[in-house]
Amino acid sequence: MSRFKYSVGPWNVHSGADSYGPPVRDEIPFEEKVKKFKEIGFDAVQFHDDDAVPNINNYTPEQVIEEAKKTKAILDKYGMAAEFVAPRLWFDPHTKDGGFCSNYEEDREYAMWRAYRSIDIAKVLGCKKIVLWLAREGTLCFESKSPVESTKKLIDAINKMLDYDKDIQILIETKPNEPVDRSVCPTLGHCMAISAATKDPSRVGGLLESAHAMLAGLDPANEIGFALAMGKLWGVHLNDQNGLKFDQDKSFGVENLRTAFNQIKVLMENGYGNNGEYIGLDVKVMRTENQEGSYQHLINSLKIAKALEEKAEKFDYEFQKKCVEERDYEKLELYVVELLLGLR
Ligand code: XUL
Ligand code: MN
Q1: Where does residue 332 rank: exposed (0-12), middle (13-18), buried (19+ CB within 10 A)?
Q2: Is residue 245 predicted with pLDDT exceeding 80?
């Protein structure tokens, strides 16, 4: 029995197309994914605005709300909650230079339209969380934008969202690069500073993705701890990553087991989940998998996360305390590795 509730997004089951090749599996309809997520053991679904309302550009704000009700009915049918809605600000031609921080006013207005629609959709789906993965907010050519102006534009956009609805919470999902070279808000430290600069810092927090922290050269467990200390860790995307390269979204724990253990451990030690937070798994299956393997990475990641919960339960805090008293960290480190190896 897990102490956490787990969530997943429809984009985590996909046909395998990448920048270098076409799809290798069939697309699976949304409802079928939700049904399967429930069977696998998930409690909630994460959404982009256009996951909940496909072809969102074609609708008026009122119609978007009506369309979102159809998605809510599917969630209800399978007893699934919605965790958050995130405006997809990287796909539409209007967002090719970024959204909130674009050099063009028309693009910035489009980005706000998507942000407001995301809030409307969240209301229908029964959630308060709006996630901002700021995919293209940054530069490919440094001199094309002022980092000072971009930061201010981002704060302005968040303030407008806070004004639009008094109940919503904004979670910035930080990432240092990809698809941009230099992101406006690369780490949770930056996220906390942006939060403090908004008109209501109590409603602006963070979402930590393991792979994104690693791409910034940081230990995700440490980033999680930092945001927890600030009372602002409102979401996580656990996954894994082999070093500093493209964003791999590998199954949780398959590359860096000890860091995965420490992510679960620090979440457990600090009561993550007590205010309804979910552990989100933002993982992608390998392109080599066949149709039947479409969900294998989710099954594996859940299994690993739950096994690490058990390891963290077994962690001997008395032994740890003794090692700290003796300042014998070699002994402590060996203990942790032996625990993970099943030798303890
Ligand atoms: C991108 C990423 C996204 C967000 C949702 O790296 O992690 O899937 O989690 O927009
Ligand atoms: Mn993510």
Answers
A1: middle
A2: yes
